[in-house]
Amino acid sequence: MSNINLLPWRESVRAAQKKQFMVALAVASLITVSVMLMVNMWINQQTARQQQRNQFLQNETAKLDLILGEMHDIREQRIKLLERMSLIDSFQQRRNLSVRLFNQLPELVPPGVYLSSLNVVDNRIDIVGKTEAYPRVANMIRQVERRDWLYEPRISSIFASDRQPIALSQFSMQLRVQAQTPGVIQ
Which pTM was predicted? Predict the structure, then answer.
């Protein structure tokens, strides 16, 4: 056989393979970089979209905080108004108490019992008077107990007086007044 030198042919095949490998490597690198850029853009879009959602939620939370603050202020105003209404209602009831008491006093006080003073403090009535006989005071207590707006009649003292010509016994009594519920007439 003759001497055939195959080195240049092999080198040209190697060079062609190396060139093909470099082209495939460049194409693969381009595809990889483009895929990475596309994934990066998609992630940036998702991040921006989530930031918009977060900003929207923060704005709505701030609005709700304002509304809750206003509701708290409205509740405080409501409580103050209810307190005022209760105070006005108690004043109204207190105003009617003296009229009601003096209207029913002749029915409460039996003959032979004479009242010297009548003092109203809060929902308590202090009565000081004189009587001809103890059973008349007991009769007055029974009359008070029959009323639904008066309760707890209590005699704090009763004693005989030495004055002449008629000996009257002096007594002091306390009653309690039932608080009326608004809108109920008794």
Answer: 0.50
